[in-house]
Every structure is written in structure tokens, then in C-alpha cells.
Design brief:
Blueprint lengths: L17 E6 L18 E2 L1 H6 L6 E2 L19 H17 L7 H14 L7 E3 L1 H11 L2 E4 L2 E6 L16 E7 L4 H5 L6 E5 L2 E2 L5 H8 L6 E7 L6 E6 L1 E4 L3 E6 L4 E6 L4 H16 L4 E5 L5 E3 H8 L7 E6 L5 E5 L12 E6 L6 H11 L4 E4 L7 E7 L6 E10 L15 E2 L11 H9 L5
Parallel strand pairs: 1-16, 1-21, 14-15, 15-19, 19-20, 20-23
Antiparallel strand pairs: 2-3, 4-22, 5-12, 6-7, 7-8, 8-9, 8-10, 10-11, 13-14, 17-18, 17-22, 21-22
Helix pairs in contact: 7-8, 8-9
Length: 443
């Protein structure tokens, strides 16, 4: 499944920017997952249960392969694994400091193995973390209802993962009507502690996990706003349904504006309906706002880009062996007519699945990008639920490249027009104003 973030998407969303897909627990040691063709639909019964009522449909073709599980250690790797088994047996047979919980040992070994990759987007997740992360990507979660990211000491967006003096947790914006919104949380607020515990040294995911929690329970956030003194804000958690598509007409109805904040499957459906409605109303000028959108399902990115591309490549997938696969547009997009002009608004929190869309329309000459350089996440994560009560893990299993085969990882996408000037007054939006100007709309 990719990553919407919680923050780096929403307080209950993935954590980091996401392009992703999900696999179920392997039913038997000999089972092997196979690649599904584009358009196949996977309904994961395991995920339906995990999401406690949230039905998650994956459009389904897999990016990568899930290897068959082989009990024991392969003969060819016995020597390499010997130190592991020696250590495991020493701990389980000879440790005298207390009772040894074998499940805790195994979970710890899985966590350590994935952590050793040094990839901030690959990690082991406890059962609760796995459930919460999938709920966030699905557009529904339990938390305070805020999009949260990271900023440096000067307040500028950055891509750090371990919190500290130059990597601080900050509110991008509260979801309208959410507990965070009602409590007065505001964009730019820096969160320095949760329930009295400072965040320095924690990963972003760990901090966001502390903000998530059970419905109707309080969480106390220590907030620093601007140059003011820290203060504590208590917010009661609730079930949040993330509105992912916002539409309005601008310039007297000449321009259709569509803001997309996530990449769940229902977001792709809602986005397609919004584009269709704009075109049906006679609007030939469209603004797609991807600012602050940290990603989600790769299949949703393909579907959304296909609203503007009649055919041809949307992105390339490169697997662990370096094999590249072309992923093409789906037919039936509502705005593929080249007479419909499109601009896309981007910023430093436009990431992953959002960058797939922005990169596709930019490379294909279908849209102009306006704003600041995007985040720069060019990898795809696969989410795998482990057997029993062992949670799961997400693992980077592919790279994605733009139609021109550019890997934007850690580089981002440079917009056609940079707009960095701050609003002159509340309510001003220089980026949007520049986009409208490129469409021929003047104030």
C-alpha cells in the first residue's frame, strides 16, 4: 500500500510520505503471491477486520513479489545465520535475568532486521501501529484530526525522521471541525511534548503513535506558537473521517479548483467525480492543489493522473533487480482533452503519490507546476501483516520514476514557476494567484 501520513500526512496517517500497497498474511509456508494485472481488484478480508469496519479496497496489482516462507534456515545460508541462532539459543536457554518471552524476542529480531536497512520508510509495526497506519491511509482514523509534518529550527519544512533541535513536529493544518480544530490548534504550531514527555530522540512515527489513541481519551500536547512561551493544550481524541477532496469554482465560474489531501481509493473516486463535474459544467481551466499531500495508494495516483492523460506512461516501476515496468494511464479520464488547461500547485509537503501525479503531468506536458520544490520520495512500500498477533512491517520494494525515467528521491521536483513569497495578508494565496495568472485569469 503509500505515507496519507499523520502526520506527515495526518495525525493518524502514515507518518511519512507514502506510496504503497498491502499484502495479507501468507496463508501457508509454501504460498507465493503473484503479480496481478492492472485493474484487478483485491478485497483483503484481513484488512477489513483490522480496520474495524473500514472496508479497504486495493486496486490491486502488486509492486514486487512476496517470497515463499521457508521453515528453518536455507541450507545455502546456514553459515550466515549461525550467529543468529547461537544468540537466540543462548538467550532462551541460559538467560537468568527473568522470564524470556519468545514472542517478544522474535518481534524484536524482526524490528532490528528491518531497522538495520537504515531506510526511514521501512519499519516494523506493532499490531496497534499497523492498524492505525492502515486506517490513516484509508482516510479514517482515531486521533485529534490534524495534518502534521516536520520543520527545522527556523520553521521550514524538511525531511528529517528523528526529532530534535533541528527536526521538530509541527502542525500543517487541523482538519476542519476536528477536535484539533475545535481546541484551537493552528498551522505552524510546534509540538514539543506529548503527555509531558519531550519528543527529542523519538522518530516521527513514534511521536505520532503517542498522539493517536482510543476514542474519547485525552492527549496533552505542549505547544510553542511563534516566539511565545510553551503551553499545554488538551485534546480529546475522536474517530476522524478525513475529507480528501475539496472543490470550488473561481473567477466567476471560469476555473475549477480541486484540492486533494490524500490518496485513498475513495479519494481517487471522489477526485474523478469532481473533475467530471467541472468539465461537464463547461470549465476549461483547472487548478489541482497538491500542497501538503503526502501520498497514499499508488493505484490511486495512477487513477488520478489518468483523469488528464488519455494513454501512455504515468510512471515507471523499478524492482529490486533493476527491472523496469511501464505503468500506463487508464482509459476514460474526464479531462484528457488538451483544450482543458491544467496547473498543479505544489510545495515541500507534496510527496510520494502526489509526486507521481505531478511528475506524470509535468513530463507529459499536460500541466504546469507552480509553488516550491516537492518533498522527494521516489520509493514504494509494501505493507505485510504477519501471522498471529505479531503486527506487520512495511518494506521498500520498488522505486518509481517519472515518465522521463527521472528518480526524484531526495531531490524532489522543481516547479516550472517558483513562488516563495509569503501572503501579504491573511487569506492571500500567492501560489494560487500565480496559477490563475498562468491560466489567463487576472485579478
Amino acid at each position: 500500500m503509500d505515507e496519507q501520513p499523520d502526520e506527515q500526512a495526518t495525525d493518524e496517517q502514515p507518518h511519512e510520505p507514502e506510496v504503497t500497497h498491502v499484502v495479507e498474511p501468507t496463508p501457508a509456508p509454501s504460498a507465493r503471491a503473484t503479480r496481478r494485472s492492472p485493474g484487478a481488484v483485491l478485497v483483503s478480508g484481513a484488512l477489513v477486520a483490522v480496520l474495524a469496519g473500514t472496508v479497504l479496497f486495493l486496486s490491486g496489482w502488486t509492486l514486487g513479489r512476496q517470497s515463499a516462507l521457508t521453515p528453518g534456515t536455507p541450507v545455502s545460508e546456514a553459515e550466515a545465520f549461525q550467529p543468529f541462532w547461537d544468540t537466540y539459543r543462548a538467550v532462551t536457554d541460559r538467560y537468568a535475568g527473568g522470564t524470556v518471552d519468545r514472542k517478544v524476542l522474535i518481534d524484536g529480531a524482526i524490528k532490528g532486521m528491518i531497522s538495520a536497512l537504515g531506510d526511514p520508510f521501512s519499519m516494523y509495526l506493532t499490531p496497534d501501529e499497523y492498524k492505525a497506519s492502515l486506517q490513516g491511509i484509508a482516510g479514517e482514523f482515531t486521533g485529534i484530526g490534524a495534518t502534521i509534518g516536520t520543520v527545522d529550527a527556523k520553521g521550514a519544512s524538511n525531511t528529517c525522521t528523528t526529532l530534535g533541535a533541528d527536526c521538530r513536529l509541527a502542525v500543517i493544518k487541523p482538519i476542519p471541525g476536528s477536535p484539533a480544530d475545535k481546541a484551537g490548534l493552528a498551522p505552524g504550531d510546534v509540538i514539543t511534548a506529548i503527555d509531558g514527555v519531550v519528543l527529542d530522540g523519538l522518530t516521527q512515527d513514534a511521536a505520532l503513535g503517542k498522539i493517536r489513541g482510543t476514542k474519547d481519551t485525552p492527549v496533552r500536547l505542549t505547544i510553542v506558537r511563534g516566539s511565545g512561551a510553551p503551553y499545554v493544550l488538551e485534546i480529546v481524541r475522536a474517530v476522524i473521517i478525513q475529507p480528501e477532496v475539496e472543490t470550488k469554482s473561481l473567477a466567476g465560474g471560469q476555473v475549477g479548483y480541486i484540492k486533494l489531501v490524500g490518496f485513498s481509493e475513495h479519494a481517487a473516486t471522489d477526485f474523478a467525480a469532481a473533475v467530471k463535474a467541472s468539465v461537464a459544467s463547461g470549465q476549461k481551466l483547472l487548478v489541482v492543489d497538491l500542497r501538503g499531500n503526502l501520498g497514499g495508494f499508488v493505484t490511486a495516483a495512477r487513477s488520478i493522473a489518468s483523469q488528464f492523460l488519455a494513454d501512455g506512461v504515468v510512471f515507471w516501476e523499478q524492482d529490486a533487480q533493476g527491472n523496469q515496468t511501464e505503468v500506463d494511464a487508464q482509459p476514460g479520464g474526464a479531462a484528457t482533452d488538451p483544450s482543458i488547461k491544467v496547473v498543479i500547485l505544489v510545495d515541500g509537503n507534496t510527496a510520494s503519490a502526489s509526486e507521481i501525479v505531478a511528475g506524470a503531468l509535468h513530463d507529459r506536458g499536460r500541466a504546469m507546476l507552480i509553488g516550491t520544490k516537492t518533498y522527494g520520495k521516489g520509493t514504494v512500500q509494501q505493507w505485510t501483516q504477519l501471522e498471529g498477533d505479531s503486527g506487520g512491517f512495511r518494506l521498500t520494494i520498488a522505486r518509481w520514476l517519472t515518465p522521463n525515467k527521472v528518480w526524484i528521491h531526495k531531490q524532489g521536483i522543481v516547479p516550472d514557476i517558483f513562488v516563495t513569497s509569503p501572503p501579504a495578508k491573511p487569506g492571500d494565496d500567492p501560489v494560487l494567484a500565480t496559477g490563475l495568472a498562468q491560466l489567463g485569469i487576472t485579478p
